[in-house]
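Office hours follow-up: a student asked to see two folded examples consecutively, so here they are.
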Amino acid sequence: MTETQTAAETVSTGKGALLEARDLHVAFSARGRSARAVDGVNLAIGQGEIVALVGESGCGKTTLARTLLGLERPTSGEVRYDGSPLQYGSRALKSYRRQVQLVLQDPMGSLNPRHTVYEAVAEGPRIHGLPDEQEIVASALSRAGLRPPERFFLRYPHELSGGQRQRVVIAGALALNPKVLIADEPVASLDASVRGEILALMLKLRADLGLSALVVTHDLGLAWNIADRVAVMYLGRIVESGPVEQVLTAPRHPYTQALMSVLPESPERIVLTGEPPDPTRVPGGCRFHPRCQVLASGRAAEAGVDAACRSEPLSILPAVPDAQAACHFAAVGG
């Protein structure tokens, strides 16, 4: 049994989960209506496990990530870390954010252009009053692949390549010796030649430090290359999840199938019709049904589930390691 399998199996019921969302809901007021950005999510990340959270823009994945970081408070449900509910007092959040760190997609935007690399990486340790600052900064830069670290201390962001800037952002997270990284589109702004280097770095950090990670992305190819498990999100809910090889080689939900179809090796392209997801207007029945190619093609009617697709809501998926899909058509073996 591999370490990855062990980590996946420990999250089967939330037991052993390092970071967990339980029946999480986050709603905002928008244009006089309630926007259900996260509308019932169960998600668990085990020790040393990398989970990819995949979906198109507007599906709620960034709001979910911000809520897991404690930057948004849930309307209902809870975030749990190491078995305990997240507390929202300033002292508790400060302690929590030493354990769970954010890596942003735009290093040029997240790095202060007036601060040197040293100052950027030292910011977290200074906030938390950690001793041996220079040693911490040097170690973090070295672990992020910027060696020798002293060579980068006095450089400014504009003097670095895109890949080097992203490594500085990662070093800033590592300086606090976290247990979990939440990486929001970590390679979206990088050239293809550099993307592989950053993904390899994240895998190395998992191997060397036992880090867990939630990687938020719209790119299923990235999920394939880095994740142990994948969770596919649509309109505030996870609609399919499971081991990455199983979900991405044999996707059961029509939405996952459509996302997979844009990859170069896909035999056919599935073009979704209808409106993009609007969290202020969640449709009845299956929330994907207005855009579903299986329903539009008549295959759902042939399977006798077309009425259910339009009218019967689906259960919220639990946080289990096995492959699962919230789909009436998939449930009858479609």
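And the second, which I mentioned at the end of office hours:
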Amino acid sequence: MTDSTAPQQRLRVLAAMSGGVDSAVAAARAVEAGHDVTGVHLALSANPQSFRTGARGCCTIEDSRDARRAADVIGIPFYCWDMAERFRADVVDDFVEEYRAGRTPNPCLRCNEKIKFAALLDKALALGFDAVCTGHYATVVTTAEGRRELHRASDAAKDQSYVLGVLDDRQLAHALFPLGDTTTTKDEIRAEAERRGLAVARKPDSHDICFIADGDTQGFLAKHLGTAEGDILDEDGRTVGTHQGAYGFTVGQRKGLRIGHPAPDGKPRYVLDISPVDNTVTVGPKEALDVVALTAIRPRWCGEPPTGPDSYTAQLRAHGEETPVTAEVVDGELRVEFAEPVRGVAPGQAVVLYQGTRVVGSATISTTRRRERVTG
């Protein structure tokens, strides 16, 4: 396999510049590789001041200014594109509706799918660009047969292939990730940025959800969904507490349950289930979280879809560990069986399949099957 970021020809590249150090260095490396690069910052809010500030977001006014300054230093044209309406509909509204339905979404994954590699890529191609470049840590390689594949980054600690598992063949064909094919650490990326004279060299990484200004996810959801008192139940259906909105909980959560009645065995209780239909939250022991299988919908494949049951590894969250699974597609749904039970799996999360370092595809978890508990 060969590194697809090493150009066989000079490409017209649109570099998505968030205002952070990663995307700035990625744009600089694309220029250094011989590409014709133009920088673009995406304005994702009609009121940018409502997004995270203090160099912790990726969509604020200060981020736009940082991106422009980086483009000036690199010596490339720079534009700011307004995608606030598309972002609100495809990411923010989707986030709220998923929680309304009792699911736990990943907005960064949705942003990559709907904004950076759909809306942005479509506009780039329409304007005559050949590829979109981002600062993600992942690798695109080309096989001897000319097929492009998405693989994990060389630096496992920074790998972001999980949130890119939604990319299909067409999107992958026009994606460049200049940071993912090197073994450089984040400290080395920052040092490179300093050598290049980029002021964002020491800018903190973005964390949390960019469109929740104060980081209070529950408060954000309460504002959009309102408060609705409901019951917290144990596994036998007994009321052990109350809540102000089922959306404020996630499967596997332990802290902040505010349960007035201790468990009979005195052990901590965890959120096992969230039911938006009757506005209840069910809690129970840690062992009851063990999931042995799941079904996932809306699969997206980074290449050919699986043709039958096969062995893979699966990743269930952005910074989670891989776990061995057997998976197959049945009637358009992905069915996954775990070799060993896993915990903290919630509907709405993405399951991403791997074969070695190659990303096979991604799907949204719809249902889970837990291990039967032995009682008595």
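Two things to take away from it. The chain has three domains: 2-202, 227-285, 290-370. Residues 1-7, 50-57 have pLDDT under 50 and may be disordered.
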